[in-house]
Amino acid sequence: MFRFANPYFLYLLLVVPFLVGLFLYSRLVQKQRLEVFGNPDLLKSLMPEVSVIRPQVKFYLLLLAYILIIFGLARPQFGSKMETSQRKGVEAILAIDISNSMMAQDVDPNRLERTKMILSKLVDQMADDKLGIIVFAGDAFVQLPITSDNVSAKMFLSSITPGLIQRQGTAIGSAIDLGIRSFGDQQSEVGRAIIVITDGENHEDDAIEAAKLAQDKGIVVHVVGVGKPDGSPIPEAGTMSFKKDRDGNVIVSKLDETMCQKIAAAGKGIYVRADNSNMALKVLSKEINNMQQGNLEIKTYSQYDEKFFVFAWIALLILIIEAFILVRQNKKLNKIKWFDR
Questions:
Q1: CATH code (residue 186)
Q2: Average pLDDT, the chain
Q3: Confidence (pTM)
Q4: Where are the beta strands (DSSP E) in the chain?
């Protein structure tokens, strides 16, 4: 397993675009100043030792060294020793609707982002549990198998977008069925749950039967409805307009609470609507805390090998190379055609 021991140093990488922009701006100003004195091509003959390429090479070498030093300060590490431990917890799969209708803005900032905010807080509260992530639209697939690595769960959660699945629709039944199979065939005393987060619109398969099958296998199906029954138009990505049907009418996506409630009832779970408050999070947390906890086998890395020195040595080598590159051309060294004028 790879990790950064000091990941907060990576925020220093935000300076890189600013440095590049500042350098390009300085080059532009320098060029404009030269044009004041005359034709740049004629001025080159008057400044034979001036190099156009070398300052750029030196800058980008220094920039690369800066980036490598930042990565070194963040202390990249690889897990070298894994240990197995036991702890009490439950197993849950988050089945997230990523169809285009989840971009509707009847909750802030939109349905999908509100879903990610709620689940991110839920993951933080499930430190002792195992989690998996399934995304679905017209199809469903496992984005993250069941794991005790909550850091990875939050990382995968943050990367979810509607673009992960091209085929549109709301295959809730397929997502539940995939969740059942993700738990495996082995019976377990550990409480298991599938948490479906959807607007329930345009469901394409028999989600109710899938929820009943999950319940038969001892898996509870909870449903979180995102949106409002009154509905909201779906923004067209990259524009100020909304999605329209074939007749040119604006499509209004509505939360199908009736369907969501039926799925939750079939799975012996609860239904809760997600709005701009933390109510959905509180209800889910309470239900998960009431689930039967069992012994979970957790594999974690207890030792990590430091790899910062690799970045440090490469950065040092680059700085040495940069120091030997002169800004101006040298008559003796100019015989070696390292750079063009």
A1: 3.40.50.410
A2: 85
A3: 0.67
A4: 2-4, 76-89, 91-97, 130-136, 140-147, 192-198, 219-226, 232-233, 252-253, 271-274, 294-306
